[in-house]
């Protein structure tokens, strides 16, 4: 849904809302200019229409008796003025309709009649015969040869041919075999939750073919724009159903305005719909979000997956982590009775952060205070005062030094970065004086990230549209990276520490080599949505995984080759609709990506593979209440004996709860070396910031997570399979009648016992005959 809209109350015969494949326009009384996409207020707009050949071309008519042609460069960009203004001088204009086959031809209806214009000429091509009553609507015939109009005359339809030569009145029902039959058959209906102010149909090229969506309309209400989707139920989805999708008109004009007016009639070439990477029809803005080239300086502004190489997450082989189980650990491990949490941290901040020893949580107390809790001391916190870190300004972002578990770096609203030292054993007194303060940014700071190899090297991004590198040892700025044109949503160091990638609100992904240049070495399209984005390097640095929003504000994941960012994404995975950005966590040992957003109840899990299908979906974790933050701990915190591959901390309104992600296995007595390869010792550094800046590189050493008393499952003895049932050949073997007879007799004998043995009563002694006579 598109929220917080206020439709106009001006009454007219035209439409209040219209849609192209990529944009939606509606009349409104609001006067704002922001990411919501409202560009400017026009004077009492009575009708509007998008060009069928250009998603960015909008035509409006209004009560000031003018028709204006607008080129909408992109959402959030100011439209300086109309490209063309036409003045029919025929009173208040009510409806406007663009020609379905020719570019530049527009029909305009007023209260008196209709006119046909070429937007490139100052005079009307034709003025049609005046209506005796109020004109209500105009509609072009599909082939563009005729124009129909309706007025207040009941059950009538006036049809005019261009140039006007004939007119007829058509009834609302047809005659067949002398009987009157209805023209329409009711198929289905949809009961809306709110009253409707206007409805617009989305072009067929934008429907979701993979889910058998045959139509989508946009409902304009008093506060929202609501998409309503119509699907045909089919047992097998993600397959193309040709009976539902005949060829539809493409987006290339069949002829120019002069050619049509001279008498030519050519049809728009048809286009065959197909399933793209996200299951939607190819060519739609949903499947391949992109904007007009004029708005992107020669580069596409949307992560556009290739329709050939991109695949859906539903296809391909399954992951060995598909049955991953997430569960909250016992209450004895929770930190409870949290009070005064700051739950509205900026979107670029993760909300809270932790290392293997302690966790830092922002508080909603004046002065930008941060509480620090020791993970080794779980339990209920006292109601009394607790020591904090006082930054004196609101906290924008903060993170722990990966090479020093006692050092916490905090970025503030005052464009300063403060470095704090937490004493051994945790906070006992309130800290008010930082170890050092880094100054250089001129605006509020977005995010801060430590270098993965070089100690004391920190990167920061700011509202001043710069990324700066700092040497904490000297407290000085050492590099300043340029090239951003708008807000920097996120940044990430490459696994080898040589490059830094950023994703920006201007719809671009940039890759920097800070030691070579302060300008980006690569630049390519990023997510089209403006709500936020994150990115992380995956598969050893071969790809960038970008989490963002598409043009419909749906959360999406994109996979971009790091060596060719300009080519865009090769695959995408849809998530859901939510205002918060999905924050990714990447486990390089298993290539698992775990994602969730602040305020979500679900943690998505994917295994990333370097070939199709790229995204392999695994079981997700769901919590009973929304979490305010989700932070993952080092791999050494996992219980490998219980096949735990990841451990996280979940921040709720009043507690911090550990969450374990485990792979179900049968032979838990063995070390599962197929899911626990050697892991990098990332908490050790062999480089200083100065050494890295001078050109030195390094790699982390790796260690095995296998306990000494566990044997690897790859060396487990092979058990011979035990057959529980006789083979079917035993039962299906054909036998002769004599063999069957013998088997039957043998079975009977076996039941009766051995007949050669005398019966027990035969051994009894009877009475002599003489004795019987005496008796």
Structure overview:
The protein is mainly beta. The chain is built from five helices and 58 strands. Strands 24, 25, 29, 53, 54 and 55 form a six-stranded mixed sheet that branches. Strands 48, 49, 50, 51 and 52 form a five-stranded antiparallel sheet that branches. A hairpin with a 3-residue loop joins strand 9 (105-110) and strand 10 (114-118). Keywords: Actin-binding, Cytoplasm, Repeat, WD repeat.
Helix/sheet category: mainly beta
Query: Radius of gyration, Cα only, in angstroms?
Result: 36 Å
The overall pLDDT average reads: 82
Q: How much helicity do the residues have? A: under 10%
Biggest β-sheet description: 6 strands, mixed
**Shape field:** globular
Number of helices: 5
Short summary:
It contains five helices and 58 strands. It is mainly beta and 775 residues long.
